[in-house]
Design brief:
1 helix, 13% helix, little secondary structure
Length: 94
Amino acid sequence: MKQEQFLNLATAEEALKKFRDAVKPSPLGEEVLPLVEARGRVLSRDVAATINVPFYDRSNFDGYAVRAEDTFGAEEIQPVNFSVNQEVLACGVI
């Protein structure tokens, strides 16, 4: 059975416009709360840590990163071959 491919991709701008037209989001505003009252709430902006935890480099998973477009046309009976360009360890680049 041949899998149907999703090769007609919308641009980020087109997708965002379709989403906003369908959902019609509006700003909810912000409020400042003590941390103990913030349980179950959603942050309105990013919070950056002042220190790294853990303090050492760590990766829980090994894997491969590929560009989606490089996989277009791949099929079980006609796979796409890749070559490793770079190996990255948790402690840096080899």
